Amino acid sequence: MIRITHLSGSQKGKTANCAKATVRVGRASDCDVRFDAAQDPKVSNHHAEFLFEDGCWFVVDTASTNGTLVEGRRIAKHRLRAGEQVQLGKGGPLIQVEFDVVDGPGVGLKTEAVALTSRHAPAAPRIDATAELSRIASDLKQSADTATANLAEIAARKVAEERAKAGGRSSGQTMLIMAGALKQVQHSTKARTAKRWIKVVAAVAGLAAVVVAVMGIVIAHQKRQIEQLVKQKERIDKEIETVEQQMSEEADPDRLAALEEKLNTLTGNAQNTLAALGKSDKSKAAALAESGDELDRGIREILRKFDADTYAVPPIFKERLRFHVDELLNSPNLKFIYGRKQRYWPMITRQFSALGLPEEMAYVAWAETQFDPRAKSAAGAAGMWQMMPGTAQTYGLRVDAQVDERYDPDKQTRAAARHLANLLAEYGSDSFMLAMASYNRGEAGVRRVLHQIAQEPGGFRKEKRDFWHLYRLRKLPEETREYVPKVLAAAIVSRDAKRFGLEN
Known about the structure:
This protein is an alpha+beta fold. It contains 19 helices and eleven strands. The protein has helices at 107-120, 129-142, 146-165, 174-184, 187-192, 194-249, 253-280, 282-289, 294-305, 315-329, 334-354, 364-369, 389-394, 409-427, 432-441, 443-454, 462-465, 467-472, 478-495, and strands at residues 2-6, 15-18, 22-26, 33-34, 48-53, 56-61, 68-70, 73-75, 77-79, 85-88, 94-99. Helix 6 (194-249) packs antiparallel against helix 7 (253-280) and helix 11 (334-354) packs across helix 14.
């Protein structure tokens, strides 16, 4: 149970009690704690969530416009303490949280396990190992066995120290301490005090049996928890699919922006669910993260190379990517083009590697000319990389009436690699698709779009400059939107050349 008290804003003075594990906060109608749009403009539609995870409460910012702050510091995810205050946007409403669970890692699970143990596990008489060891030491001193008495005292002190470290609870170290002490006790001493030692060891063994029973209950609880998380992720994925479908059909900019905010909230929830699942079952979480068909896995593998992974690839992007993959595979010239690509590939990868560029970006040459060094467009672009005269000259190529070095594959490839490296430096390595779009559209065209977005609230933030944001909101021209999946299609087909019969 979490209790939310409104200290300022449109809900000031009100208190909300929620028993859910995930409490949504924002202005949208599906939020558990709602704010008024007119009175609380700093609050986003889906601003934040309070999340109960591993026995602790967290506050998670779900891609809000104005941020979520704790003690004046903007956070992405923050573990809460009872009584802590959270601000929704700088200058926005302030709320205070209280909760009824004990603050500590794994408390929720531990509480249930103990409750189940009390109902199902056989009650065992509690024997204090520290006290018992002290009594043994006293008996040994009376029998003049001082050396062994000292060992017993040391063992008792170690048990007490470990219990103190564990906050007065069983430390789990008693059995190990006892085993070490037993090894050091002489056979004759053990014989005289056998009953006492056996009593303590039996008590510890009894505790171990209870621990085994509790662990069985914990494992059963974890299995149920894993099943619930898997179902939760499947439900969120369906919601994401619905929202993305709505975005592909929506034309109104305001409604598109609202849908994207909802999408950001859902993908944040899905990623939190995967993270929670990973703590219980890493292999299950990894398998779910890699779910999808061959095309999904191919896209994700390429995106990861550039730190540009996205939880949900827009369906329309995937649809166009599949179109271009199928177009390549059905092309009668595919083997010829692939053979020409192989001819120039060592030279291309050498030039790209010199600047640390991933080879996937070199498939721009496939999209531009199918690796034809003699290609020329009606607009005046020439060479394998289709450079205009001005761009070529910027990168040191000679273009005049006597010589046109754009037709020199080696020289133009070096110039193209430098050009792409500059674009990556401008947009960031995680925006490699934006760099490729800029190669097609021209820096001025993409820069103009980014400058337009910069005039919107928070338009300078990274997520607003992201290729996926521009793609979903259709901020890029149609030709450019089509260009990027065309380049990636060539990369995906070439990576699987043997499967597609391009290599023997």
